[in-house]
Amino acid sequence: MNQANTYDYIIIGAGSAGCMLAKRLTENPQKKVLLIEAGKSDNYIWIHIPVGYLYCIDNPRADWRFKTVAEKGLNGRSLLYPRGRVLGGCSSINGMIYMRGQAGDYESWVQATGDEAWSWENALKRYKSFEDYHGDANQWHGKGGEWTVSKQRLRWPIMDKFRDAAVEAGIPSSDDFNRGDNFGVGYFDVSQRKGWRLNTSKAFLKDAVKRSNLTVLTEAMVTKLKIDPVTKNCSGVVYRQNGISTEAVIDSTGEVILSAGAIGSVQILERSGIGAAAHLNKLGIPVIADLPGVGENLQDHLQLRMIYKVNGIKTLNTKANSLFGKMMIGLEYLLKRSGPMSMAPSQLGAFAYSSPDQQSANVEYHVQPLSLEKFGEDLHSFNAFTASVCNLRPTSRGNVHITSTHPEAPPAINPNYLSTDEDRKVAAESLRLTRNIVKQSALAPYMPEEYKPGMQYQTDEELAKAAGDIGTTIFHPVGTCKMGRDDDPMAVLDSQLRVRGIHHLRVVDASAMPTITSGNTAAPTMMIAERVAELLTRE
């Protein structure tokens, strides 16, 4: 093998974890790093304009365009399942919400792994290290890091009224959801810089690519890992670029780091012979490591999109449905980098208890001053807002597996939403909680009328069915290569994210989470990468 194709580290996937790792690992000029991304460069304007997610999701320029199988819990519906295929990965197409989750999430990781490195206190130190917070540095937030955390650059009267109604319903006002207990209602902080989307490519790669020890390949599809079936050593990767198959290897002390995401990392492991032997045998793939947990334990947040018509107050529906309104929206963004074009998909957030039985806030709201039938369609012609509510700690578990050895073949994604009695119960409670918020006096002057799912749904059984009709992914798949203790047969990784039974191979992305965090998952994925960077740069 040509020395030019030999590296200390090969990172597969330039997403939320991969870009950070590329920067951290190249801080040592003696270490040579290869970063491989299946997608293109992020030089696509709609990636950087915040509202541009509308033009990136389900667009092959930036999205793998996956779909789920027909879901029983969703009454037979199949969902779009967006995953970033571009520099920056999902951080180039996601909702830009900066959310760490709850302290208890990390304590559950400690229990799952036996490793105190994953405690809330240790995670908080990592968050602060890469954060550039809009306020002063304090016990909760850092200043001067690569990742800018900004306040949103717009407000809507209907959002303020929903916030007031939530307070009336017993949810306290909050100006910061990232202190370990996110119970409250307020505007989300966002991953933006001066009105532009911040993705991990800009935050981490922009400086790192200036270093001579980093090589970045785009439009390069990793077909499989190079693993010796006898020694179980992972020595590199095989990838295709411009129709040509090429190999890259690591030196004897190096590592391959798989950061292709909760879907992509499973695909690459299974194509390489790592996974459940029974499944690999069906596809004629020689088994290198029989790890039945690969592709299992899939968790995701299912949002239930409740829509309310309102009167006497304007929403984005009417503003964006006229030519003049669209022109004014564009002009405001051009001149001020503010207004609807600067907005994250959801502006107002709330974390609440679906019932008194919960130990901490277990549902999250994403509230929007608009409504539409489904993603990609036009806004409704009437004034309305959407209050999407999701179960933060679902007990349903799904799976994802390859169906072919062909690298471009889509996997079978089965989230298994609403498959447990507990999740159906929380869904019914969540819909009732939303109704309780909306009936408060703060919203009463605007005569909110439930458009979806509709007041005809009242019993637990009816509301669970309604949840299946209006539920959709909020794009937070995790857990498919979970870390865990040695005695957990479904743990794919140890607590340092090393693949069990294989040398020189780690999985560093959202798939490593044993349980999903209580909120949006981009920031926790970066924190996971920071942890592995600590391990590797101290060696």
Describe the secondary-structure layout:
Blueprint: E1 6-12, H1 18-25, E2 33-36, H2 45-48, H3 53-56, E3 66-67, E4 80-81, H4 103-113, H5 120-130, E5 131-133, E6 147-149, H6 157-168, E7 184-187, E8 192-193, E9 196-197, H7 200-208, E10 214-217, E11 220-227, E12 234-241, E13 244-258, H8 261-271, E14 274-275, H9 277-282, E15 289-290, E16 302-309, H10 316-319, H11 323-336, E17 348-352, E18 363-368, E19 384-391, E20 399-401, E21 412-414, H12 421-438, E22 449-452, H13 460-470, E23 471-473, E24 505-507, H14 522-538
Parallel strand pairs: 1-2, 1-13, 2-10, 5-6, 13-24, 14-15
Antiparallel strand pairs: 3-4, 7-17, 8-9, 11-12, 12-13, 16-19, 16-22, 16-23, 17-18, 18-19, 20-21
Helix pairs in contact: 1-7, 1-14, 5-14, 12-13
CATH superfamily of the largest domain: FAD/NAD(P)-binding domain
Q: What's the count of strands?
A: 24
CATH domain class name of the largest domain: Alpha Beta
Given helix and strand content, the structural type is: alpha/beta
Total count of domains: 2
Low-confidence stretches: none
Whole-number mean pLDDT? 95
Q: Tell me the helix content.
A: 25-40%
CATH topological fold name of the largest domain: FAD/NAD(P)-binding domain
- How many helices does DSSP assign? 14
General form: globular
Radius of gyration of CA atoms, rounded to a whole number: 23 Å
CATH architecture title of the largest domain: 3-Layer(bba) Sandwich
Portion in beta strands? 15-25%
- C-alpha end-to-end distance: 26 Å
The profile of the biggest β sheet is: 7 strands, mixed
